Amino acid sequence: MDASWTAVIAAGSAVVASATTGWFTTVAARTQARLNREMQGAQLRHAQVEHRYQQRRQAYAEFAKAAGVLHSRLGDMVAVAGDSDAFSLLLDEARAERTVLLSTMHVAFLEGPPAVGVAARDLYEAVNGFWSATRRLNDAKHSGIPADIAEHLASTSRRRIEARASRDAFVEVAREALAPSDGTPA
């Protein structure tokens, strides 16, 4: 072999080595780009799941809080039933709180899942029943008929207990809906 063949072989080897290096670099860059895209997709999905989880959690908490606030206000109204001025003042406050309860119930209902929607509706209806019983108790106390007062007092007590039980049931269903699973963060 002479020097020219050696130069040709060396040049060919350099070209093959350069092409091989370029090919491996291209494959590595494509692999890295694919992995980056998959990682960004996973991060986006995680952020979406986390946002959805927080949105549900907030909706459930606001509804449970609104139910508790109105339940407490109704308890105050029971305590002053028969006192027109005090009852009227608390009734005005309770109307505003009832509006908040209705609004937050709609949000909690829409957040789902269906079991939470059912529990939200049940809680709203239970608190609404307590609301009606409280107003009837006040009317009965104004009538002054002891039998009516006793009947409405018993009804109000039952409704109060039902509302509290419904709130506990809603909280339990909401906790189950928020429990971490494959699709929700811990």
Verbal overview:
By secondary structure, the protein is mainly α. Helices cover 91% and strands 0% of the residues. Helix 1 (3-80) packs antiparallel against helix 2 and helix 1 packs antiparallel against helix 4 (146-178). It is rod-shaped, with a radius of gyration of 34 Å. The N and C termini lie far apart (72 Å). The mean pLDDT is 91.
What's the short story on this structure?
The protein is an all-alpha fold and 186 residues long.
Number-wise, the strands total 0
**How many whole angstroms does the radius of gyration measure?**
34 Å
Please mark out the parts with pLDDT under 50 across 5 or more consecutive residues, or reply none.
none
The chain-level mean pLDDT equals 91
Q: Helical residue percent?
A: over 70%
Kindly, what is the distance between the CA atoms of the first and last residues, rounded to a whole number of angstroms? 72 Å
Question: What best-fitting shape do the alpha-carbon axes yield?
Answer: rod-shaped
Structural class: mainly alpha
SSE sequence, one letter per element: HHHH
How would a crystallographer describe the biggest sheet? none
Strand content: under 5%
- Count of helix runs: 4
List the SSEs and their pairings.
Blueprint: H1 3-80, H2 84-111, H3 114-143, H4 146-178
Helix pairs in contact: 1-2, 1-3, 1-4, 2-3, 3-4
Supply the key terms.
single chain, rod-shaped, 186 residues, mainly alpha
